[in-house]
Amino acid sequence: MEHFPIVQALCRAAMAEPTPALRKQIERLHDALTKDGEKQQAATLAKILSAADRLKDVAPSRIERSRVNLAGEAIGRSTQVPVDRETSASLAEIIFPDDFHATAPLFNATVTQATESIVDEWRNLEALSTVDIIPSKTCLIYGEPGTGKTRLALWIAHELQLPVVLVRLDGLVSSFLGTTARNIGNLFTFANRYRCILLLDEFDAIAKVRDDPQEVGEIKRVVNTLLQNLDGRQRIGLTIGITNHPNLLDPAVWRRFEIQLEIPKPDFEVRKAIAQHFMPPVIAPDSHIRLISWFTEGSTGAEIEALVRTYKKATTVREEDRRGLLETLQQFATLNAARIQRERRTLLFADPGKLFKAMRNDEALNFTMADIGEIAGKDKSSVSRLLQKQAIEEDVSDG
């Protein structure tokens, strides 16, 4: 076969992570070569297939590596979660890895590397155990709403192929004396029985400062119960806490978490990546993506996603109702005034010359006059005249 060395390399690369369909095609190629009398080439493919079989026998899969040292039973679809004794309401929700499609959250390089290190620890339990090290078993994720905290926790679970026992702690609080503490105990007993990730959402709902004079003695007992159960849970499985209000957490709660990961608001490049991620199937010009990123300075990923939805709607309606990008941004800023920085909103509704100057001078945007003209629906000469007019007005004002 001509170019067989290339085919051989492709087959070897494919069998590094084979699927049944890939293996079937390589077997078909092996049989065809044998039939054509290409015995040496067929033997080479046979060796590649055999090597893949041996590797499969001796090397555990990612899922097996992630679970090798996890004690406990497997959670099934029929597994019953604990309920509140007084109301019979479920205290948790079980989410299985196959129930959601989790893509890696979009963060800056530093945060991305840190989150991947959490997964890598759990994927390499056996290697770590040889040096008497265990992965970090408690992780507190905090940051403003919409920054991707819950999505990150679900992505970790998906990567490790572990079910999530999702608990919204504000739902555990009961008006019955002693019931809240009992609910917490029952939940941790359940999580300690099964192989899972215990995800404690709205963590600040219970883990409040015990010295707060506004809190009654009951909530202080609840926090103590939570701390005791976190201590016990540390020896068994992975626990993730999520909060939008880290300032409300008791200092003793912070000490229970080996990892304390702050999710920041996205920078310019990350905002671009988020806008690009949510844009399909609409194909937006790069200048539009950059302006959306610039306009959403200080915004969260969820707010950028909302703006992209507005943009997609504006570009797919009837031609006579279609709005330009600047009009779309103005509409979004009007309907979401508290979510957009005041400086950006002011520029957006200011004299066009002032807006164009800000866009032209921003190093991150790196706009040409042609870019500005395309966005504003004007030619380059019109943009140039407006910029000149703005410069003259500023000179007069300064003089």
UniProtKB/TrEMBL annotation:
Domain AAA+ ATPase: start-end pairs: 135-267
Keywords, ordered alphabetically: ATP-binding, Nucleotide-binding
Family annotation (InterPro entries): 26S_Proteasome_ATPase (IPR050221), AAA+_ATPase (IPR003593), ATPase_AAA_core (IPR003959), P-loop_NTPase (IPR027417)
NAD is among the record's keywords: no
CDD domains per record: RecA-like_protease
Keyword check for Nucleotide-binding: yes
PANTHER family attached to this UniProt entry: 26S PROTEASOME REGULATORY SUBUNIT
Homology family: Belongs to the AAA ATPase family.
Entry protein name: AAA family ATPase
